[in-house]
Amino acid sequence: MMANDLTSVDDALQHILDRAPAITRTEAVALTDSLGRILAENQYVPADVPPADNSAVDGYAVCLADVAAGRPMSVSARIPAGVAPGTLAPGTAARIFTGSEIPEGADAVVMQERVERTDDMILIQA
């Protein structure tokens, strides 16, 4: 097959959609009976879950603009899960754990495996 004989992604998607059966009827069922079924319309929750941005890993919350190759950063805070984080001091990192709320001023979390720590200083590995 020549490269120009390949089907484009848009054409392949249209091919699939043209053959997908249309939903012609819906029914309301209890949540406990919904396994294996397809939603007929979007569902929304009345509140954010979780209520704030939180860390998916153990590591260090940082502001990316403050991170520079080879420059150590001071660890200014320790934020366990369930504790209000406060604000990240400029130019520093905060020790953060899985499920911990990300502090104001941080826009990234560096996994602990990518960090070298000595006392209260860290060096982010490239």
TrEMBL record:
One of its GO terms (biological process) is Mo-molybdopterin cofactor biosynthetic process. It is an enzyme of class 2 (transferase). The keyword Nuclease does not apply. The keyword Ribonucleoprotein does not apply. Keywords: Magnesium, Metal-binding, Molybdenum, Molybdenum cofactor biosynthesis, Transferase. Its EC number is 2.10.1.1. Pathway: Cofactor biosynthesis; molybdopterin biosynthesis. It catalyses: adenylyl-molybdopterin + molybdate = Mo-molybdopterin + AMP + H(+). InterPro entries: MoeA-like, MoeA_linker/N, MoeA_linker/N_sf. Catalyzes the insertion of molybdate into adenylated molybdopterin with the concomitant release of AMP. PANTHER family: GEPHYRIN, MOLYBDOPTERIN BIOSYNTHESIS PROTEIN. Belongs to the MoeA family. This is Molybdopterin molybdenumtransferase.
